[in-house]
Amino acid sequence: DAGVIQSPRHEVTEMGQEVTLRCKPISGHDYLFWYRQTMMRGLELLIYFNNNVPIDDSGMPEDRFSAKMPNASFSTLKIQPSEPRDSAVYFCATSWGTAGGSDTQYFGPGTRLTVL
Amino acid sequence: AQTVTQSQPEMSVQEAETVTLSCTYDTSESDYYLFWYKQPPSRQMILVIRQEAYKQQNATENRFSVNFQKAAKSFSLKISDSQLGDAAMYFCAYLQDFGNEKLTFGTGTRLTIIP
Fold first, then answer.
1. Which of these, A47, A88, A52, lies nearest to A66 by C-alpha position?
2. CA-based nearest residue in chain A for residue B49
3. Which residue is closest to A34 within chain B, CA to CA?
4. What is the C-alpha end-to-end distance of chain A, expressed in Å?
5. One pLDDT digit (tens) per residue for chain B, 115 residues
6. Contacts of residue A79, Cβ cutoff 8 Å, sequence gap at least 6
7. Which one of A44, B33, B101, B105 has the minimum C-beta count within 10 Å?
């Protein structure tokens, strides 16, 4: 299995520009999570999906952030407009479902976003 | 709310020696999962080991093993025969079973391997 695939690996953009981060989950995984990691705040859960449906977006910092999962093989996290404080590493993670919910989360390599 | 505490911001160990990283957690639940993730300089989050709370037997993966003390809410990671490639940030994480999918992370322990 190829694991969780994220693109791009690095993104440098200017303030005010739109940024789109992409994730391809491990085949068969029912859950998809988007995280943000910064030195100050550590790892933060932004949003997660179950069977392509957004379940909890309470971690999304502002309306400038949006996430979609149009099918089981693809998800996007969009920031519009971007700001320097959005600079961070963004991870996508996926897991299979169990009778009790989700299980072990497997992480993608992350996207390092720099907003100038 | 569940919390995960890693009280050792940094640890170091001589190559080939054994090191133990500490983790404690707070929960009122009886069914949950615990994990250790490794984050090397490449920043990839790599699963090291997984423990189900209902299992009394401690999980083991090659040189990595845990000491799971459910009553004490303690979940330490032992790395035997440390190798240079083990140098990384190590995060302890908690996942509740049944209904809450949020993975709660500790603040991490940076492990340095001394050649």
1. A47
2. A104
3. B102
4. 36
5. 689 999 999 999 999 999 999 999 999 988 899 999 999 999 999 999 999 999 889 999 999 999 999 999 999 999 999 999 999 999 999 998 776 778 899 999 999 999 9
6. A18, A19, A64, A65, A86, A113
7. A44
